[in-house]
Specification:
Length: 393
């Protein structure tokens, strides 16, 4: 007989964000299938404006609070949030506080220390160090010192730690000097049904056809992602392949910013189709594409991340151009010969990548089947199901 389990899930994302819709809710539905029908899972999101608690499924509910950037307003809001959540945990007999990534884990640590609930860390990776490496924070900043300290504290307190990549276990032991037993590895998994059902419909992309070689990128620029280097790559690809090379960017970046990137890289912006679509529509555009690009900055801590887009590219059977030492993905791509790993960021490497992709695409159908099998091996939700059963069953 399944036991009643009551869980508070803490995130730092808004409810409509793809990180909630594709990287959190699917896992909560797996947990829902494991616990009893009388269990409750409460998902905390930080939204532009707070909303009343609303029911997502028979077991899952959303608690919405207002997001403020790091600063005085954020501090005041979080004091109110802690008071609310402390009372909420006690009233609703919450047994587990399940936190996605280390900023949420910092809040979870405080709540678990106050209430005695068990702390579960999910997608645990070095956020503070990564923010320094990509030049968003300074190493002597309050933000860095605060989060790094809480990364160590939450790791020590957690009963179970779910890392995004294998190397994070050894990194945690060395960087935080914390030895744990209950470690798990869970990369960003994929709902294959969404990609298997996607059909080619070139009406979505005016002027593009099967004769084009289409590169797709679904994501952002800046922060943990490269900027100018991506458009330099596109420029080399266009120079080598001519006008049959096209780019589809699924991003919320403005056209003005994309045009400036093109100008800086001497790239004709007419080869780019720019769209911002709901994540549910992303597979439709991937179905029309020939390869994807994952331009994560190749800084040391990105060995321990899990880019969501790679699993989606693979589920669609697309080869990927990726920077080096990104999670386990760079090694998977190289060892399975399903794309190209950029060992440096220069025109010579960009050209080598394009020539490699061009050769791989000579046998598209065989390549697609091969890549989908890789996706099922490394990105299946069965990986997550085994982990959550060991924690909550």
């Amino acid at each position: 007989m399944k036991k009643d389990t009551h869980i508070l899930v803490i995130t730092y994302w808004k409810y409509d964000d793809a990180l909630i819709q594709t990287y959190t809710l699917p896992y909560l539905k797996i947990i829902e299938s494991i616990v009893s029908k009388d269990s409750k899972i409460y998902l905390l999101t930080l939204d532009p404006a707070a909303r009343p608690i609303h029911q997502i499924s028979s077991v899952i509910y959303n608690i919405s609070k207002t997001y403020f950037p790091f600063g005085l307003k954020s501090l005041v809001e979080w004091i109110k949030n802690f008071i609310f959540l402390f009372k909420f945990i006690k009233k609703n007999k919450i047994q587990y506080v399940h936190c996605w990534c280390t900023p949420a884990g910092a809040a979870g640590y405080i709540l678990c220390k106050l209430t005695g609930a068990k702390l579960i860390l999910d997608s645990f990776e070095p956020h503070a160090e990564a923010m320094v490496e990509n030049n968003t924070w300074k190493k002597n900043s309050i933000r860095y010192k605060f989060l790094f300290r809480f990364e160590k504290l939450q790791l020590k307190l957690a009963t179970h730690v779910i890392c995004a990549a294998e190397g994070m276990i050894a990194y945690s032991q060395k960087k935080y000097n914390v030895i744990k037993e209950n470690y798990f590895i869970k990369p960003a998994c994929v709902d294959f049904s969404k990609f298997e059902s996607a059909q080619k419909d070139f009406k979505l992309l005016n002027g593009l056809t099967e004769d084009n070689i289409i590169c797709i990128y679904a994501g952002k620029f800046n922060g943990i992602y490269l900027e100018k280097e991506v458009f330099d790559f596109f420029a080399i690809a266009h120079s080598h392949l001519g006008n049959k090379f096209k780019v589809v960017l699924l991003t919320n970046e403005t056209k003005e910013k994309i045009d400036q990137y093109c100008l800086n890289s001497n790239l004709n912006p007419s080869i780019i189709t720019l769209k911002f679509v709901p994540h549910s529509d992303v597979p439709k555009y991937m179905a029309l594409s020939d390869f994807g690009i994952c331009p994560v900055k190749p800084v040391p801590t990105k060995q321990f991340c899990t880019p969501i887009k790679n699993g989606e590219y693979w589920a669609m059977g697309l080869p990927v151009v990726i920077t080096k030492n990104i999670s386990e993905d760079s090694d998977i791509i190289q060892s399975n010969d399903i794309g190209y790993v950029l060992n440096s960021l220069n025109d010579e490497e960009y050209l080598s990548a394009i020539i490699k992709i061009e050769s791989l695409l000579l046998n598209k159908e065989i390549l697609k089947l091969k890549i989908v099998e890789v996706a099922k091996k490394y990105r299946s939700f069965s990986i997550a199901e085994r982990i959550y059963k060991s924690i909550y069953a």
